[in-house]
Amino acid sequence: MKKRTLFFALALVCGLGLAASAKALSVTPGDLIKGPGDTVYYYGADGMRHVFPNLKTYMTWYPDFSNVKSIPLSELQAISLNGKNVTYKPGVRLVKITTDPKVYAVGAHATLRWVQTEELAVSLYGADWNKKIDDVADAFFINYQVGSPITSTADFNPSAVSAAATDIGTDMQTPTVPTTPTTPTTPTPTSTTPTTPTPTSTSNVTFTTSEITYQGGDVVTLNAQAQDPSGIYKIELYFDGQLQKTCFSASCSGDTLIPQSGTKQSYVAEARVTTVNQQLLNKTVTMTQATDGSKKITVRVGQIQITPSMYASAVADVDASVGVQRIDIYVDGNIVKGCATGARQCQWTDILTNNQIGSVHPVKATVTDTIGRVYTSDTTNITVASTDAPAVTVTPAKDMIYTGETVDITVSASDNDGITSIDVMQNGVVLKHCVGASPCTATTGPWNTIGSQIFAGRAYDTQNTLGTGTSTAVSVTARP
Amino acid sequence: MRMSKLTSALALATTLAMSFAPMATHAATTTAFGPGDLIKGSGDTVYYLASDGHRYVFPNSKTYFTWFKDFSAVKTIPDGMLSTMPLARNNVTYKPGVKMVKVTTDPKTYVVDQGGILRHVGSEQLAETLYGLAWKNRIDDIPDAYFANYKVGTPIQTASDYKPADVETLTPTIAIDKQMDNTRVTITIGTVDNGFVPPTVTIKKGSTVTWTNNDGTDRTVVGGWGQSQSLKYQGTYEHVFNTVGSFDYHEAGHTVMQGTINVVE
Description:
The complex is a heterodimer of chains A (about 475) and B (about 260).
Chain A: H1 2-10, E1 32-34, E2 40-43, E3 49-51, H2 55-61, E4 68-70, H3 73-78, E5 94-97, E6 103-107, E7 111-114, H4 118-125, E8 133-136, E9 145-146, H5 158-164, H6 168-172, E10 204-209, E11 213-214, E12 219-227, E13 232-239, E14 242-247, E15 251-257, E16 266-275, E17 280-289, E18 297-301, E19 305-306, E20 312-318, E21 324-331, E22 334-339, E23 345-350, E24 360-369, E25 374-376, E26 380-384, E27 391-396, E28 400-402, E29 405-414, E30 419-426, E31 429-435, E32 440-447, E33 451-461, E34 466-468, E35 472-477
Parallel strand pairs in A: 1-4, 5-8, 7-9, 11-17, 19-26, 28-35
Antiparallel strand pairs in A: 1-2, 2-3, 5-6, 6-7, 10-12, 12-15, 13-14, 13-16, 16-17, 18-20, 20-23, 21-22, 21-24, 24-25, 24-26, 27-29, 29-32, 30-31, 30-33, 33-34, 33-35
Chain B: H1 2-16, E1 38-40, E2 47-49, E3 55-57, H2 61-67, E4 74-76, H3 79-84, E5 100-103, E6 109-113, E7 117-120, H4 124-131, E8 139-142, E9 151-152, H5 164-170, H6 174-177, E10 184-189, E11 196-197, E12 200-204, E13 207-213, E14 221-223, E15 226-227, E16 236-241, E17 245-251, E18 258-264
C-alpha cells in the first residue's frame, strides 16, 4: 500500500490545462524519450508518445538504454500521449496472460497466437521454451489482439517474424487494406522449406441488408459486422443518408422502414465503421425498387393445359402485408376479371375467346393497394391442346415441422379423361408411385437439416398426358 | 543508476493491476455466478463478468472504488472456470461523473463520459463549476500505461456540456457504461473439467445465447431444442430461447459437461 501511495504522490496534480505550446523540436520519430520521470516512451511517426508498459516489453526491442534521450518535462508534456502502448517484438518471446493458461507466440502487429501443443512449442522455441515465456498482466491484455492459433510449425517461424519486425513504428501500424501476403524478405537460413507467410489480421467490414430489392412499406434489416486489429469503436448504420442506429460494438443490426410513397428507384444503405485508432471504414449496399410483385401477389391457374371445349380458370391470392383495394386478373394482356371488394382472393373462370389448339395464353394478376401502389404477379401460361393435362395439387400435412419429424405429402390429380398414375416427387426423384386416381400420400423424413424441403407431384391421364403440380415447401425449424 | 530506477518504476506499474485484495480472500468457491457479477479466482484480481462472456479487468483499485464501495459482492469461483472465460478487449474504466482524471505526464484534466471517453476541461473556472471549490481533490492520476483504456472525446466547452451528477445517474452499471446488450449472453466452453462457464445462466425470454468454444478440442452442444455442429476452437453456436422454462444441455461426447439455461419472463 505504501508503495502505491508513493507512486501516485509522485505525479503532481498540475494546474488545468494550457499545455505548453512549445513543440519538441529535438526529437524525431522513432526516438526513445524520457522526461524527468523514469518512464521511457517511443516517439512515433504520429507525433505522439507511446508507453512501454514494462521493462520486459522494452527489452524485446532494445538491448540497453543507451539511445534514450532525456528531454525537459515541458517538452514531454507538449507531446500527446497515445493510447496505443508498445507491445512485444514479434517472434522474440512467448507470452502468457496471468489468468489464461494458454501460451501464445507474438505475431506481427501485437497478434497473440496460441501455441496449441508442447511439441509445437519445442519445435518453435527449443527444448527450453518454457524459460522463454513472460507473463503479461491481465490489464495489459487489451494492448494485444488474439489471432488464429498455431497448429503446425509451418504456421509460424519465430526468426522470420522477428526479422520482419524491424521497428516499433511499423509493428504498431495497423494494416488498413487487406495486404497480399508476401514471403519474408529475409530468408531464414535454418529453414529449408519455404516459410508460410503469417496471416496478418486486417480490417474487414461485412454489411448486408435483409432484402436487396424493396417495395414501399417494407421493413429492411441492416446488418453490419466489422473487425480491425485496433478494435471497433463504433458502427453507424445509414439509410438514404439518414443515421438509423449507432452501436459501440463490433456488430450492429437495425431495422428501417422504407417510405411508402417513395419515388426513388433505389436507396443506398451504408455502414460506417470507426475503429479504435480512428480509421474510418465503410461499406454500402444499393437497394433497388422491386419491379415485380411476385412476393405480394400470386396467380394459380386451374389447369396449365386444357382442351378447346374446357373452361380455363385462375385464382389470384394477395399476401397479408398488402392492404387490398382491388385485384385484376389479366389473360393475354386484357383484364378478364376485376375484384374490388377488398378481399385477398379473386377467382376467374371462362371459356377462352381464342381457343385454337396450340395457342398459349399468359395469365397474370395485379393488386392495387389502399394507397394506390400496384404490384404485379409472375405470369403463368395456359396452353390449349388436343388433350388436357391432369390438374395436380401437392398438399403437405404441415407447412412447418421441427427437426427430426416426418411429414406426409399428398398429391391428388383430376382429369376429364381419368387418371392412371400419381407420383410424389422431390428434386426429380419419385418418392412414391401410386396407380389409379386416388390421392397418393407419402410419409417423408425424418428431416434433420434446418431449412426447407421442396415437394412436387405429377400425374398421367389415360391419354398419357403429363400434368405437374406447383411445388410446395415445408420448412424445418429447430425445436424450441 | 538509470537502469535500476527504470526497472523498479516499471515493475510497480505492472503490479498495480494486481495489488488490491478483497477483504475476504478465503471465501468458499461457488459456481453460481453469471453476467453482471464481480468474480475472482484464488488470486487477488477482481473482474467484472459481462453478458458477452468476457472478463473485464479493473486496472487498479481506484477504478474499482468509483463503482463499488467494498468487496462484499465479489464471488470467488474455481480458477479453472475463471481462466476459461476470455479477457475482454477493453478494461473497466472510471464510473462517469465520479472523478476527474489526468494522465501522469499530461497536464490536461479530463472528465469521464460514458464508455470511457475522456473530455478535456479547458479552464479552472469550468472545473470549479462542475466539481465545486474543492475540484482539485476530485482529480485522480491515471498511470500512462492505462491511458490505453480510454478514448479522448470532444472537449467540454461550457458547464451545460457535462453535468457530473446526471452523467453518473445515467450510468448506474458497468453493463450500461460498456453498452452491453443484455438480450445476448455468451457461454464459454472449456476443458472437460471446467465445462460450460457459467454453468447456469438466467436470461429473459427472447434472448440469444451464444456458445463459444475456447478449448482446443472440438465440442458439440446438445440440448432438448436441438444441437450445434461440431465447434472448433473459437467456433460459436447460437440459439434464441422464446419459451419460459429451464433447459438443460450437455456436450455430445462428454455428458459430464452440463449446463442449464433458465428462461424467465
